[in-house]
From TrEMBL, chain A:
Family, per entry: Belongs to the binding-protein-dependent transport system permease family.
UniProtKB keywords: Cell membrane, Membrane, Transmembrane, Transmembrane helix, Transport
GO BP term, example: transmembrane transport
Protein name from the UniProt record: Nitrate ABC transporter permease
Provenance organism: Agromyces bauzanensis
Superkingdom of origin: Bacteria
From TrEMBL, chain B:
Name of the encoding gene: ssuB
Organism expressing this protein natively: Agromyces bauzanensis
Sequence ranges assigned to domain ABC transporter in this UniProt record: 29-250
GO MF annotations in UniProt: ATP binding; ATP hydrolysis activity
UniProt-listed InterPro entries: AAA+_ATPase, ABC_transporter-like_ATP-bd, ABC_transporter-like_CS, ABC_transporter_ATP-bind, P-loop_NTPase
Keywords: ATP-binding, Nucleotide-binding, Transport
Region (Disordered) residue spans: 1-23
Pfam families linked: ABC_tran
Lineage, opening ranks: Bacteria, Bacillati, Actinomycetota, Actinomycetes, Micrococcales
Positions with biased composition (Low complexity): 7-18
PROSITE patterns: ABC_TRANSPORTER_1 (PS00211), ABC_TRANSPORTER_2 (PS50893)
Protein name per its UniProtKB record: ABC transporter ATP-binding protein
Segments passing through the bilayer: none
Amino acid sequence: MSTEGMIEHREAGQEIAPTTVAPVPLRRRGRRGGIASWGPPVAVAILMIAGWYFVGSVLLDPSKSYLMPPPHAVLAVYFDPDVAPDMYEALWNTATVALTGLLVAIVLGVVWAIAMNQAKWIERSLYPYAVILQTIPILALVPLIGFWFGFDFFARVIVAILIALFPMVSNTLFGLQSIDAAQRELFTLQRANRWIVLKKLQFPAALPAIFAGMRISAGLAVVGAIVGDFFFQRGTPGIGALISKYTARLESDALFAAIILASLFGVVVFWFFGWLGRRVVGKWYDFA
Amino acid sequence: MATTERAPAITSTTTATPTPTPTPTPTLIDFEHVQLTYPNGTIALSGVDLTVRRGEFVTVVGPSGCGKSTLLRIASGLETASEGTATVNTGRVGYVFQDPTLLPWRNVQANVELLAELQWDTQAVRREKARRAIELVGLSGFEKHLPRQLSGGMRMRASLARSLTLDPELFLFDEPFGALDEITREYLNDELLKLFVEQQFAGLFITHSVSEAVYLSTKVVVMSGRPGRIVDTFDVPFPMPRDPDIRYTGEFAALVGEVSHALRAGHGA
């Protein structure tokens, strides 16, 4: 792994330059694999499944077992040829909406934050709207979005963008403004213009915060896509549409399966952006 | 604020000239009655007269908050004097901050190249400047290391190297070794003196350590706070290059004592 390489290099460096000041030993950060990292969440999962069985088969009256179908019945849905293909296709549609929305939210959020960072008056003019974006109940807006943008793919993407945008704006802005005054002065002393300062100082310094924002936004974009499905079922709706269909038909095992699939997808996207963040800034920043 | 009536210090009559430069030596910093008043009315500096000539290493000691750093900020152009004139007669000014201020995502090489990069030097020129500077501070072999992989002392060296790429005529130091342990600090003091003798820059160094001040400089300026003003000046008679063992001589201790006295007189009284 990359950390190994860095250690080797340090030793090589010591031979070349036997100065009196020894480099501090490299901190090996929490990249422990093995049971220590996956043990606890697996244990929790086992406990939850056990609890699920307990509630479903002991506490619940057999006539009401549809309220909580046993885990193996839910698992079976994923292999049911009558249900599973629909579900995977719906997941794919949701994923397309969520990732498109996320991509737009990332670009828009970063640009928005950079614009606000250029001048106090721009920040003062635009920041309230970023906050409003976060505080208005998006659900109340969703019908409007339908009127304006139609009831298919495009409208669903807009919902995903609206929900995912704020963390990108606020995290990027925070990152851009987190630089040290002395580092800024270092550039000022060389008469660096604001574009150079942005490119060589502020933007790289903001990357950890931007990646943290992406991770939050990624999860939200998935939520946004599913919410969009509920309202806009034209075209090729995704897993949200299936969820409302299964609910209406009381097909609880398929409902559970769809919900779990949607959350798993959210987890994968979240994990992916964590991984990407560690890849890009992990060498110099302890990206949690 | 009581004005301190001090007996003329036993300043040595031999003005230290580290390198026998032909007269007149050019004045690199010339402050005349410099005053700095902040918009809120706080007077940070008042009536400061200070010159730094080529071949001089001037150290300013004073209690924290006395405006020592403000002096540097005016000399570097980061702040402008509200009254008086502050003249700096060179464009090649190196500035070493209190913290190493390295960019954590850049390795030592890229960090040292930064200033040359900001001056639009070509890559070949940048490389060469950085190589020389890294060699001068003894960091060869650590070019690929990230700041987080270095000790505090090594980070400060990298920071020094970064300023050295400007080939400064005047070097401004804002308590650069204040956060380091005693041993590292003494070691870096020696390295800095070596650079001073070899590279022939003039230095203006801020510190709150009196012995560091006396050891490094050709002239020690004592400041007192609120408002910051110069209360005393001492010439340091010891020749350059300086023998590290000079720290343990009686003369050295006597001078440290005098400076400390002046510092205390200016502070309290």
